[in-house]
Design goal:
Elements lengths: L7 E6 L3 E11 L2 E6 L4 E4 L5 E2 L22 H13 L4 E4 L2 E4 L12 H7 L11 H15 L15 H16 L9 H16 E2 L7 E2 L2 E8 L5 E9 L17 H7 L3 H5 L9 H4 L11 H15 L3 H18 L3 E3 L6 E3 L2 H14 L3 H9 E6 L2 E6 L2 H21 L1
Antiparallel strand pairs: 1-2, 1-5, 2-3, 3-4, 6-7, 8-9, 10-11, 12-13, 14-15
The structure holds adenosine-5'-triphosphate (ATP).
Family: Belongs to the TRAFAC class myosin-kinesin ATPase superfamily. Myosin family.
GO molecular function: actin filament binding; ATP binding; calmodulin binding; microfilament motor activity
Protein name: IQ motif, EF-hand binding site
């Protein structure tokens, strides 16, 4: 590193991560710096990063990081920060697109006009944009006749889900057929998003709409570049959330939607989420700016478009209601050692409801929760479970049913 007096560098800072500085002197193994925040500090040379000279810096940052003279961490962060201040949330690093979450709606960036602009435009000619990445892969597929992949990665809340939706929106734009019919393949592709989000997303401390699963979305095109089908594979849903949450997180959105659904909620003897143990472990029931009742309608509509029959839809919501009732079953110690019985009338009611909704025999459900069958060479032995073990099997059943429903 060329460290001389007057050299422009970045120095680490406890609060700002990095701060711009200039070398003013050398003190033994250390260098003395004057920072842009007006401090004089000492630092080891190996801890410093070189910085573009002020006069070389473009006012609004550069749209491709490869244009930076020094491609180091502070340089990258500083460039992103400057662009972000001007609402330029996208920046290239060669063919990689970096998106910084704007945490505000930017509709002008994603309208049809923008999609038209990016359609067929050489990569890098227009400002960095997620549509450009989608377009370049679409064209590569058409020209090379080979499948293309776009990988979207980032930490929780970074914007992966939104970005994926924008990519899908663009691909359905360039690969769609005439609009009109609600049940075209591209409509189905797009409506898979609200559906998956209802069942696989939840509020976390970092993101009100956090995907609690991974997904691989495959969009298939015919030889003319028209969408012909799609497949979505999901991975590793966070099962524990179904039975255990902490404030201010929430369970999966679909539960709150169902509770707010009016007639359907009544039909399944549901009420406010605060009545259900799987939801009231956290006192956060609402999401800012979101109406659960409206979201319920959206989920229903998405199910219609995706092609889930009304009968299946009923079965899905019935299962969700059953899980909520299941969670309200409590046990108290039975007469025999290490055994358990249904705690009270309230639990008996929820037990009956869960059994009815699961369409199973209530005694069988009770036996499943409060006993365990052990296979031995002499035959099977039924062993009673204590309260804690019975609650654990209740939760295990809820998690398994939910996870299978999600996979289905
Ligand atoms: N391009 C964007 N424009 C506007 N808002 C955005 C954009 N990207 C993200 N957001 C906002 O940030 C929130 C979080 O983004 P998103 O859910 O996509 O994150 P994520 O990376 O998928 O997180 P997780 O890993 O938790 O699922 C969104 O709900 C949205 O409000």
């Amino acid at each position: 590193m060329n460290l001389r007096k007057g050299a422009k560098v970045w120095v680490e800072d406890k609060n700002l991560a990095w701060v711009a500085a200039e070398i003013t002197d050398f003190r033994g193994k250390q260098v003395q710096l004057q920072t842009a925040t007006g401090k004089t500090v000492l630092a080891l040379p190996e801890k410093l990063c070189l910085r573009d000279a002020d006069e070389e810096e473009e006012h609004g940052g550069v749209d491709d990081m490869t244009k930076l003279t020094y491609l180091n961490e502070p340089g990258v962060l500083y460039n992103l920060e400057r662009r972000y201040a001007l609402n330029d949330i996208y920046t290239y690093t060669g063919s990689i697109l970096i998106a910084v979450n704007p945490f505000t709606k930017l509709p002008h960036l994603y309208n049809v006009h923008m999609m038209e602009q990016y359609r067929g435009a050489p990569f890098g000619e227009l400002s960095p944009h997620v549509f450009a990445v989608a377009d370049v892969s679409y064209r590569a597929m058409m020209n090379e006749g080979r499948s293309q992949s776009i990988l979207v990665s980032g930490e929780s809340g970074a914007g992966k889900t939104e970005t994926t939706k924008l990519i899908m929106q663009y691909l359905t734009f360039v690969g769609g057929r005439a609009a009109g019919d609600d049940r075209t393949v591209e409509q189905q592709v797009l409506e898979s998003n609200p559906l998956l989000e209802a069942f696989g997303n939840a509020r976390t401390v970092r993101n009100d709409n956090s995907s609690r699963f991974g997904k691989f979305v495959e969009i298939q095109f015919d030889a003319n570049g028209r969408i012909s089908g799609a497949a979505i594979r999901t991975y590793l849903l966070e099962r524990s959330r179904v039975v255990q949450i902490t404030d201010p997180e929430r369970n999966y959105h679909c539960f709150y939607q169902l509770c707010a659904s009016g007639k359907d909620a009544e039909k399944y003897k549901l009420g406010h989420p605060s009545h259900f143990y799987y939801l009231n472990q956290s006192k956060t029931y609402e999401l800012e700016g979101v109406s659960s009742a409206e979201e319920y309608m959206k989920t229903r509509r998405a199910m219609d478009i995706v092609g889930i029959s009304h009968e299946d839809q009923e079965a899905i919501f019935r299962t969700l209601a059953a899980i909520l009732h299941l969670g309200n079953i409590e046990f108290s110690p039975g007469r025999e050692h290490d055994s358990s019985v249904i705690k009270d009338q309230k639990s008996t009611f929820h037990m009956q409801m869960a059994a009815d909704l699961f369409r199973c025999d209530v005694n069988l459900l009770l036996a499943t929760l409060s006993t365990r069958t052990i296979q031995t060479r002499e035959g099977s032995i039924v062993k009673a479970l204590d309260c804690n073990a019975a609650m654990a099997s209740r939760d295990a059943l809820a998690k398994t049913v939910y996870a299978r429903l999600f996979d289905w």
